[in-house]
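[User]
Protein folding is very new to me. Any chance you could explain this protein sequence and its structure tokens? I have pasted everything here:
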Amino acid sequence: MPSAAELRLHIIEALARRATGCEGPVRERLEARLATLRAQAAAAAPVPGSADEPAPPVQQPLAALLDHIARHAGPAPELKTLQRFRRTWSRLAADQRVVRSRTRLPDHAGPLNSQRLVHRALTTMRELSPDYLERFVAHADALLWLESAGGGDLLARKDVLQAGAGPVKPKRKRRSQQAV
């Protein structure tokens, strides 16, 4: 089991690693906390040359290299292959949505049928701006996921409908009806 001094050193090292990845006021607070911990560690350190003094930790070369990379490296850029994969996947998902909306159209739907209107809107989006269609489909998928995670159709639930409805006002009679 590590001693209290070793635990304190591990905490200081971990906090220092965390501080290197932060900026602004968060980093300032972490640096202040680090200074406090270092001062406490220095005050609690055993007298040099005493038998209680722990041996300094020896850092392995690979660990030193990893620490150096972690301190000096910024956020890793996304790989170009991954970017292409994401773009292709979102384009395929959008195209599948358009095809799926076409297969769900009723045979003899009128011009104001909601499914027909949605299909026409998706087809027009695909023709005019495929990138917008991809973002629209991603947004719609996220909303559908949130709805399913929330317990189904929120608009069909009575408690939501009642909570969203304001006080019911009685209808007033028109002046023309009052005069008669």
Remarks:
- The chain is about 65% helix and 0% strand.
- Residues 1-46 form one domain.
- The radius of gyration is 32 Å.
- Residues 17 and 33 are 13 Å apart (CA to CA).
